[in-house]
Structures are given as structure tokens and as C-alpha cells.
């Protein structure tokens, strides 16, 4: 035992995002002595709300897919709270077409043929191939060995060729093929290629498998909002953790994951130099944070470390939170809770990060989901647009510290985004009662994710090929496991459910190997 040891545990969980919370609660329920360490003062990662004036806003995820999986995991934890789910629809507005695309594929097929009359044959051929892959991906986590670990994976391998040979072969094939390659085979119109290949206006860059997963989530499984909010789910899981005698320390940042000469974890050291020993360490921090900051690089196989360094994460975003007087805005163009809008589509050489007219922006009518987030006749809106970290990096002086001029620059950027949104929400600027904004630096500080990344590993097919598997829960360090969005190479269940699922699997593995 180290000198100055503050406690001995079966498991230490780093980070209280939904993956870490789920894992910690399940282990505590199964009799393990668990310590949950959270750097921030708020439990739940980005899945919490904050207040500005009379309005409440979401810090992170707005909705999710696979509500049945969520209920299944909550039931396993002994949580029987009744949760109702409200389906969210998605709309895309471009200079050339306006479509609500969160509809079954057969209905989408009809809608697209009316818009792109010259591409009817190609639409049929592409969607036929897409549907074939989509059917193979439904509930893939229940049978495919690459989405399971431990004994569950072993059992899945035994049944694979007997029950799922065809689906397995499809998934293997299309995980290596770019969606762009298939789209160009059937469809000539670049605008249609972009829509089918990205559910938006950008060029397709993901694998055909991931594209099929994304269409399956939005058109078949659906995207849903829980009546208690994501923060309510987190609170229920956290209360369960405490009820089963789990221990938690907030405002407690881990400085190092301790590893012995046999390459096995022995515990953690905090920035206060407190040492907590444990047989297992489970990190809900992302992969780059964990292996590039918390683990001695000499303990990590060189090839593995290089993969983590080289493989890209999904970018961050710029976000504006608005409290709005509904009587002063025209919502006649709005047909869904989540609207994606691009005013102009200029040639690539004209691209400018701050030109939101030529970029895809998201407008989320959050108060349509969280009805109590705004007073009567008011709205809470969340405007977002993808934004890389680098343009903001020079503003950073340290954690929560910025150079002079940052706030005014952020405000200017917010005003540009609002001006673009006003093209489809006339009157928006004059209806604003409350405004706040978040940048990649905000998400880096509050989510503790590397460079404020928001959606796991990069979705680019060439980047995803670098990673060693579908699930990245197990690591080369004995008894060091990963959970959360970054513990999977692709968000095969969507972000929130994938994070929760990896936490559940990691807990099962610990229970299986240390009964």
C-alpha cells in the first residue's frame, strides 16, 4: 500500500457522465465498494441544465434513441420511475428543398422522388441497399460479438454463424466502404448525395455502415426526449448509487492513474496528492484525456499510444442559448423540434467559418420538449453550428481563464448566428430576452473532453479505420476500463445510449471477473 492512502476500494470510477454513473451504480448494487470521482461540482457530465433569468437550458444532449434500452438498464438498477418519451422530428431547410426527414424510409423515398424527379431510379436503388444494411444493424448490440465483451461476447461468437451469418457479413462489408462510394454509384445530383450521405448539406465522409446506423436511428428507431429530462435520468442513477452505499467526491480531479510494474492498475492520485487504491479503475474521461494525461506513457504499448494520438475526435461546436418571447417571432416555416438550416451553398473555396449563411446551423426548440424550461408564451431555443477548436485556442489562458476580448468576440459570433437563424424565424433578434453562448473552450472546461469534442471519435471512415475495434472498453492496462461515448469507435446506438451501454457492459465485466 502507498503511504498516505486515503481509502481502499474494489472499483474507482473517474467521471460522472452517464457512462460512469451507470457503471458505478450497477457495481454498487452488486455489492462492490465503489468510489466515484468527479472533477466538476455537478454530477452528470454534460447532461445537466443551467438557468439564465427565467429560462433553463441544456448543457449537452437534447434527445436520444433506443429508449427501450435505457428503460432496460434502469430496470436492472432497480429504478422503476415512470418515464414518458416524446418523439422529436427533424427538418432540413436549404435553398433547394425543405423536408422533414425523420420519417420511415418508405415515406422518405416518396418525398425525395417528388423533389428530385430526375433521380427516381437512383433513389430506389440506393435506399434498397441502405435498408438492407439498416435491418442488419437493428439491435446489433444484442448479437454481434464486436459490440459485446466477456462471456456475452463468447456466447455471441458461438451463435453467430448459426443465426446471424448474413447480417454479420453485411456489417463487415459495409464498415469498410465509404457512403460516398455507394452514393456516387447510384445518384448524380450532388445535393441529393449530400443529403442522403450526411442527413444534411455536407459531403459524405462516413462509412456506409455508420450511415445506415444514423438513418436507422432517425427514421426507424426514432429520437426521443424523456419526460424527466436527461438530467432527471442522471439524478435517478446517482441516487441509486448513493442508496447502495456508493461514495462520491466532487471537485476532485484525478492527476494520475497508478499502475504497477506488472502493468496492472492499483488506484489513482488526485491533484491534492490523495491516493485511493483499487483493484479496478474505470475512466469516463475520454481516451485522449485518459491516456495522454492520466497514464504514464511508458506503461502504454507504443503502437496503441500512437493510435490514440493519431485518431481524430469529432469536432466541437459553437452554441447560442436564447430565451425568446414567442409572440414576437414568426414560426410559420418551422415543422419540427430540431431544424437544420443552410441559407446558401457556395463553392468550397468560398468557405468561411464565421459565414453562418454558408454553413449548416441547427435550431432546437428545446421548450417543445422541456415545457417547464420557459415561462408561459416564451421559448427556449438552442442554436448550434459545428466549430473546430483551433480558432478559439489562442483565447485560452488556462482552465476557465480567457484573454481580454474573448467575451466580445463570442458575442459578435452569436449575433452572426442569430442573424442567419432569423432568415427562417423572422423577428428573432427583437424577441430575445436572454442570451448566452458556449464555444469549444466552454465545452472543454465543462465537459472535460479533449478540445471540447462533442460526439465521440471522428465519423470519417478513414479515421474510424485506425481504431482497434467497435468497442474500446478494454485497454492494454490490466483492470483499466473505459466507458462513455469514446469507449466505442462509432455511436451505434446514438451518443447517450452508447455511453450508458458501455457503462453497463463494463460493470458486467468487473462483476464477471471479480465475483
Question: How would you characterize this protein structure?
Answer:
The longest helix is centred in the last third of the chain and has 19 residues, at 495-513. 49% of the residues are buried. A hairpin with a 2-residue loop joins strand 3 and strand 4 (55-58). The mean pLDDT is 95. This protein has 18 helices and 20 strands. The strands form five sheets. Strands 1, 2, 9, 10, 11, 12 and 20 form a seven-stranded mixed β-sheet that branches. A seven-stranded mixed β-sheet has the order 7-6-14-15-16-13-19. It has 515 residues and is an alpha/beta fold. Helix content is 37%, strand content 20%.
Radius of gyration: 23 Å
Estimate the global geometry from the Cα principal axes: globular
Compute the number of strand runs.
20
Tell me what portion of residues adopts beta-strand conformation.
Answer: 15-25%
List key phrases describing it.
single chain, 515 residues, seven-stranded mixed β-sheet, globular
Fold topology:
Elements: E1 5-14, H1 18-29, E2 34-37, E3 49-52, E4 55-58, H2 67-76, E5 85-88, E6 90-93, E7 98-100, H3 105-115, H4 120-137, H5 150-163, H6 165-174, H7 179-186, H8 190-198, H9 208-221, E8 223-226, H10 229-243, E9 247-249, E10 254-259, E11 265-270, E12 275-283, H11 287-294, H12 302-310, E13 316-325, E14 338-341, E15 361-365, E16 378-387, H13 390-393, E17 396-398, E18 401-402, H14 406-421, H15 428-431, E19 432-438, H16 440-447, H17 461-464, E20 480-482, H18 495-513
Parallel strand pairs: 1-2, 1-12, 2-9, 6-14, 12-20
Antiparallel strand pairs: 3-4, 5-8, 6-7, 10-11, 11-12, 13-16, 13-19, 14-15, 15-16, 17-18
Helix pairs in contact: 1-10, 1-18, 2-18, 3-4, 4-6, 4-9
Amino acid at each position: 500500500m502507498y503511504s498516505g492512502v486515503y481509502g481502499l476500494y474494489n472499483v474507482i470510477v473517474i467521471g460522472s457522465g452517464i457512462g460512469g454513473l451507470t457503471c458505478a451504480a450497477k457495481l454498487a448494487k452488486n455489492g462492490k465498494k465503489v468510489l466515484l470521482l468527479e472533477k466538476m461540482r455537478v454530477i452528470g457530465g454534460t447532461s445537466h441544465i443551467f438557468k439564465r433569468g427565467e429560462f433553463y437550458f441544456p448543457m449537452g444532449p437534447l434527445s436520444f434513441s433506443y429508449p427501450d434500452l435505457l428503460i432496460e438498464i434502469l430496470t436492472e438498477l432497480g429504478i422503476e420511475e415512470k418515464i414518458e418519451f416524446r418523439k422529436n422530428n427533424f427538418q432540413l431547410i436549404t435553398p433547394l428543398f425543405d423536408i422533414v426527414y425523420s420519417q420511415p424510409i418508405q415515406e422518405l423515398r416518396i418525398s425525395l422522388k417528388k423533389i428530385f424527379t430526375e433521380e427516381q431510379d437512383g433513389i430506389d436503388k440506393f435506399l434498397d441497399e441502405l435498408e438492407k444494411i439498416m435491418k442488419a444493424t437493428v439491435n446489433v448490440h444484442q448479437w454481434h460479438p464486436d459490440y459485446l465483451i466477456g462471456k456475452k461476447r463468447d456466447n455471441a461468437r458461438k451463435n453467430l454463424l448459426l443465426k446471424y451469418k448474413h447480417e454479420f457479413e453485411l456489417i463487415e462489408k459495409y464498415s469498410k466502404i465509404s457512403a460516398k462510394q455507394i452514393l456516387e454509384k447510384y445518384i448524380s445530383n450532388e445535393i441529393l448525395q449530400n443529403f442522403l450521405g450526411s442527413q444534411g448539406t455536407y459531403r459524405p465522409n462516413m462509412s456506409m455502415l455508420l450511415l445506415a446506423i444514423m438513418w436507422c436511428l432517425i427514421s426507424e428507431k426514432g429520437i426521443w426526449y424523456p419526460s424527466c429530462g436527461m438530467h432527471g435520468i442522471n439524478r435517478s442513477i446517482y441516487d441509486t448509487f448513493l442508496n447502495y452505499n456508493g461514495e462520491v467526491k466532487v471537485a476532485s480531479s484525478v492527476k494520475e492513474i497508478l499502475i504497477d510494474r506488472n502493468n496492472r492498475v492499483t488506484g489513482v492520485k488526485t491533484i491534492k496528492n490523495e491516493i485511493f487504491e483499487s483493484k479496478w479503475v474505470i475512466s469516463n474521461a475520454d481516451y485522449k484525456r485518459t491516456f495522454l494525461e492520466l497514464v504514464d506513457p511508458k506503461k502504454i504499448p507504443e503502437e496503441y499510444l500512437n493510435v490514440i494520438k493519431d485518431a481524430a475526435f469529432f469536432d466541437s461546436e459553437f452554441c447560442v442559448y436564447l430565451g425568446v418571447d414567442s409572440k414576437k417571432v414568426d414560426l410559420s416555416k418551422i415543422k419540427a423540434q430540431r431544424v437544420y438550416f443552410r441559407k446558401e451553398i457556395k463553392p468550397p473555396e468560398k468557405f468561411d467559418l464565421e459565414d453562418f449563411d454558408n454553413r449548416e446551423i441547427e435550431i432546437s426548440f428545446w421548450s417543445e420538449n422541456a415545457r417547464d424550461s420557459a415561462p408561459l408564451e416564451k421559448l427556449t431555443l438552442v442554436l448550434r453550428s459545428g466549430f473546430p477548436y483551433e480558432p478559439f485556442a489562442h483565447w485560452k489562458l488556462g482552465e476557465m481563464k480567457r484573454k481580454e476580448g474573448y467575451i466580445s468576440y463570442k458575442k459578435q459570433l452569436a449575433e452572426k448566428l442569430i442573424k442567419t437563424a432569423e432568415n427562417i424565424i423572422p423577428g428573432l433578434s427583437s424577441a430575445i430576452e436572454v442570451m448566452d453562448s458556449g464555444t469549444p473552450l466552454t465545452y472543454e472546461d465543462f465537459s472535460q473532453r479533449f478540445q471540447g469534442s462533442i460526439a465521440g471519435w471522428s465519423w470519417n471512415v478513414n479515421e474510424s479505420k485506425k481504431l482497434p475495434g467497435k468497442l474500446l472498453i478494454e485497454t492494454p492496462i490490466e483492470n483499466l476500463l473505459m466507458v462513455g461515448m469514446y469507449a466505442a469507435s462509432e455511436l451505434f446506438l446514438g451518443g447517450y445510449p452508447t455511453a450508458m451501454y458501455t457503462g453497463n457492459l463494463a460493470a458486467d465485466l468487473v462483476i464477471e471477473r471479480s465475483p
